[in-house]
Amino acid sequence: MKKKITLFLVLILIAGLFTGCAKKEEPAPAPESGEAEIDDQLAAIQKAGKLVVGIEGTYPPFNFVDEATGEYVGYDVDVAKAVAEYLGVEAEFIMAEWDALLVGIDAGRWDTVIADVTATDERREKYDFSDPYLYTGRQVVVKKGNEVNMHTLDDIKGKKVATNTTNSWASKLEDLGATIVPIDNTDQCASAVINGSADFCMFNNIVMSEYLKNHPEAELEVAFVIETDVNEVSIPVRKGETRLLEQYNAALAQLRESGKLKELSEKWFYDDLTNNPLGN
């Protein structure tokens, strides 16, 4: 009986020694001032070897599918590829409807959106934006020969406008008394005006020119131009991604200084639209 008790005590002692030698899990030190979160996004992109970019893919000449090759092409696509190259990675594009693009950044579906995104005051509340890489104007477009009688923003009251609900002008149009007819893309916008389900839509000067080039039969015309409205097209990032934002700005600065940004603008828009026409 004593031998059994002694053996039992020896086993307990041995087990205790092994337990004592086991390495304890030490909690990871808490990041200071959010530095880990800031570093992680840029580091994750470079570790993955790719910059994942959300685009519409149906928005020529900004981003669309080349029917001959099946590849994404356009001004935004070229800019995204150049930015990715500066970061030392490849650009990968994921197509989604416009209203889902910025949400995709929040959900982590892609790293950013490079798709004619205007840096509005409302969007700046949630995202940080790079320096502008394109400036566009805005036009109010109506059906040819109609009697909508639109000449200024005061004439918008009581009219129906075809636009997506996350358009940078959507809330302004409602404040001006317009009723929104929801659409997802340029074709739907134009169709709504042509078939009469909307009184007008708003295209920037580039999109209007491109649409009429591809649809010369479209019964559309410019009612008036909003002279003081200039869209600053920029690259959004989540708040706090300071290092990533700095890299975007450095990439865009290099593209501007080298003349590449101007070259891309002239390639896709037949004009240099990379400087603010209002001079500010």
Instruction: Please report which band the strand proportion falls in: under 5%, 5-15%, 15-25%, 25-35%, 35-45% or over 45%.
Output: 15-25%
Q: For the CA atoms, what is the radius of gyration?
A: 27 Å
Biggest sheet details: 5 strands, mixed
Count of helical stretches: 10
Q: Just name the CATH architecture of the largest domain.
A: 3-Layer(aba) Sandwich
For the largest beta sheet, what order do the strands appear in spatially?
10-9-11-8-12
Q: Poorly predicted ranges (pLDDT <50, ≥5 residues)?
A: 1-39
Order of helices and strands: HHEEEEHEHEHEEEHEHEHEEHH
Predict the CATH topology of the largest domain.
Answer: D-Maltodextrin-Binding Protein, domain 2
Count of strand segments? 13
- CATH hierarchy class name of the largest domain: Alpha Beta
Structural class label: alpha/beta
